[in-house]
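Hey,

The postdoc asked me to send both predictions to you directly instead of through the lab channel. I've kept everything plain text so nothing gets mangled by the mail client. Protein one:
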Amino acid sequence: MQIDNLDLKPAQILFNYCRECKPVPGSAAELEAFEKIQQGFANQFELFFPDNLAPKTIVVIPSLSLDQEVLAKVDGALYYEERLLCLLMLLRMPRANVVYVSSTPIDPVIIDYYLHLLPGITGYHARERLTLISCYDTAAIPLTEKILQRPRLIERIKKAIPAGNVAHIACFNTTALERTLAVHLGIPIYGCDPSLVYMGTKSGSRRVFMKACMPMPPGAENLTCYDDIVHAVAALKDMHPHIKKAVIKLNDGFSGEGNAILKYPENLTGKAMYNWIHHNLHDAIKPVAKDLTTDKFMEKFVLMEGIVEAFIEGDVKTSPSVQCRINPRGEVDIISTHDQVLKGEDGQVFVGAHFPADEDYRAEIGAMGKTISAVLKDEGVLGRFSIDFISVKENDCWKHYAIEINLRKGGTTHPFLMLQFLTDGNYNETTGIFETANGQQLSYYASDNVQSNAYKGLTPQDLIDIAMFHGLHFDGATQKGVMFHMIGALSQYGKMGMVCIGASPEEAYSFYLKTIAVLDTETAG
């Protein structure tokens, strides 16, 4: 590179050089560079992943690269970056290094809390192999974008990878931002190529379900504007007169916050129904996210596009989820099944999950998940993802409707990783049961939405003191107890997450109820 401006300071010259030698984001050169980097990941996976003693580095980028206005409706969204602290458990491999990047510094008490749980490794040994890097930036933009704005920080990440180590990026979801970061760092992502992101949208999910011949709610996808919604809502009611409600979903909604509910008026049919929808749809739409107006929702819809589908009714209704993984060898694994706990407007917002899913259907939905995963594998999907269903019991039989695919980590990823890392057990996809090496079966209840105004002001130290005093902390001997996460959100928002592990679903949930009772008592008054 020729330097024409000799008035520039050396630091500025270096910055310009680094900036100019990288391909333009989204350009053909960047796409080619990313493809080459990802091609080498298959060899890395084959040679180094099975060997717990292999020198390796995992760069954790817990960025929620999602729509920030929708995400802003989630209390303490910044602290969702702490959910992937479960990956610190990878430090139990004695030659593994972890580089964890966050928007703001993570309290050392929280780090110590995780490292204390490592089986067979001292906290000191693990801490020597952990590098924590912060952007010191609370702006409402994705963490990955903050990193890309800081070339010196990118250099610090590179330097934190020891010579001779293979390395890869672990992230929450993979977008064009993560692709650019991978190219800047020169290391692959264990995740889906951003060019395949459409299959993880609400519209793309429906197309995949069609290819897999999966039952799903009647509806329409690839809608782009208000008029599309009007026609889709009207056609849905015309074709299925028994439907009482429709759900309008943004293609890239998060945790149900991108949904809206429409209730059809009673005693209207045909032209009268269409006229009502045409004239009243705007006022009848009820966005799920708090403080999200219909105008803002429609503005988001035009930007993201979306779907309309029937709201599935049922006296006995559940919302199971199947977690899957496609590795670089193209092997499909069913990792786990969960029964999601949904609240909010007509049960649209995810607040927690029971593991494993109900024994009546856990094997069945696991098999359905594998069929869908085979379609995704053929499309080139890589990494972890989940498939959500709505299940209704009719005449002692369960009917399952595929709802959406999340081509990313989600609310059920970190609880299962914690269970797996803490107990070194395995999930049997045939039986749907998790067992430890000594044959002990384990279940858990997990939630990211443990929240109360009374908890505001509790520091991480306070929470850990309370847990220790009341015997709530996970016990490695019994392999039961409670693990907390998103602890950083507690003091400001009165919010955190927990994973409650027990020998049965009932015992696991009892730990949750006990913990809530203890916290309520400790913060009373």
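Protein two:
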Amino acid sequence: MSDNFYLDNDDLRFYIEQALDWDSLVDLCEHGAPADERPESVRDARDTYEDVLKEMGKFVARKVDPYTKELDTFGTRIEDGEVVVSPAFAKIFKDLKKLDVYGLPIPRELGGLNAPAVVYLAACEMFSRADASTMTHFGFHAGISLALLTYAIRDPRTKFKNGRVVETPYDAIIQDICKGDNFGCMVLTEPGAGSDLAMIRATGVEQPDGTWKINGEKIFITSGHGQYQLVLVRTEDAVKSPGLKGLSLMLVCRKIQKDGKEFANVRLSKVEHKIGHHASPTCSLVYEDSIGELIGRRGEGFELMLALMNFARLGVGFEGLGVCEAALRVAKEFAAERVTMGKTIDRHEIIADYLEDMELYVKGIRALAFETAFKVERASKIEQILKFDPPADEAVRADLERKLSRAKRQARDATPLLKYIAAEKAVEMSRMAMQILGGVGYTSEYPPEKFLRDALVLPIYEGTSQIQSLMALKDQLSQGLRDPRRFIVKMARANWKRVAEQDPLERGLSRLFAYKYKALQTILVRIARNKLKNTYDMPIGSWTDALFSQWDPKLDFAPGLLHAERLTKILSDVTIARILVKYGVKFPDRRQAAERFMKRADLRCRYWLSEIEEHGEELLADLAKREPAKDGAAA
């Protein structure tokens, strides 16, 4: 049993102690801070972050990991309208208050520690390694504070000084969460409105005093007993503002004070009994003339909720990483001790192959997780500086704008890949750990069955794996269709570099990029097949207008929709390989992991590419026959 979940993880420590660009990140986080408040140096700041993670690593190892059985067995329930959690769960979050970490990524001016969000996410990985359901609840402390801070930055009532937030409309709430006295939740899903939020029926009606009355039912709300609830409701006329355009975001307090007494503003109607995540309450909520406050403007609720969902997807990425790390460790430990046929099973070729693949993917997912978190935070901080404290020097400002554009694009590209691959691999590695342990792995006496139960929800919540794939597909296709010439140049460059690069690492990486562009080309050509018939006599620069006109989304994009998940697997492997190669070139001791991951990725990407090229024509033809004709008659 480990005594510290940070100190025993060399790969995690690598990103904190060597890999991350702390010079850039600390400068962005401390922008505009008074000299007497900011760290004396970047090294001083990094040492502080390390100390925090060492304490968190020790806390998780000693206060969470030994109690996972109790957390899982006790579960949650409702008594007298309140959620009841296990004594171990309650003690964990009570003791966390003493560490003063609930406000880890929140500005000092609002009661936080002003650490980069990536430090908080590293702590999330350690929590998830011990118990995923505990990590989930931990996320609804700082996560809701960060969401309110994001909304406050867009609010004209918020005050800034030297580009720093110094006062917001939500100060009292943020400070309450930072102290650990309360937490929040995000409230989206309804019966019949899960992935398709346009189907939301809960309503908000404005009152003469400026408050709103909320009515409706919400289900599957993680930590739904939270005091501060961010609720998506329909406020606009369904005809004038249909679908997502009619949604607004509300801040609803579960309990309110009235005439010196406390009243329930939201009713808890149910706690779900789930396959896993037993310690994390998943609630059904009923709003009956519940009092709420509008966040932002009417009709921009979905846009505002996306900011919270995107950060939540980052959190799920680190959660999946923690489960993968736990599954790998249990499998390796068991395999090193279990003897069959005269040797430990980690020396049997099949098991050794499994373990190496798991270990390489854990390193790869961690590389992607930290790279994505860095890009997301970098984009957020630069955007705030440009908006509220833009440099006077035009050249400096232009350079920041270029960095912002690049960081936003990279963050947008990477986030769905992280959520997809971390969630899917958490399930796969938990299943593999169970297989390596054999019969005992199927019993509740050993951890893999719990890992698997906890992991199964990861490809479902905060946007299913299939939605992440569609997001990745959409962005890649949009880039290719918007600038076909640039796409062709990139593809040609990758094909040239796969033979011309001197370094075998770079050659292998270029080969992976060539697979990526070939897969995209195949999908693009099939999507644009009918359109291209009209572009043969047109210059390539005129293709964009022709390709974007008069689309039938149900039929024209069908080849892309069919292969979205295969493309996402390729994109994930290519992106991970790129990051591993970057560190393999810079740090010689990491070169072997990059080489071995890339060899395996090459085989996988070739397989997925062949499926994209050769599979699905018959299925698409069958589906096309089932589509109704445009006049409404059967096709």
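Summary for protein two, as requested: The longest helix spans residues 394-437.

Thanks,
C.
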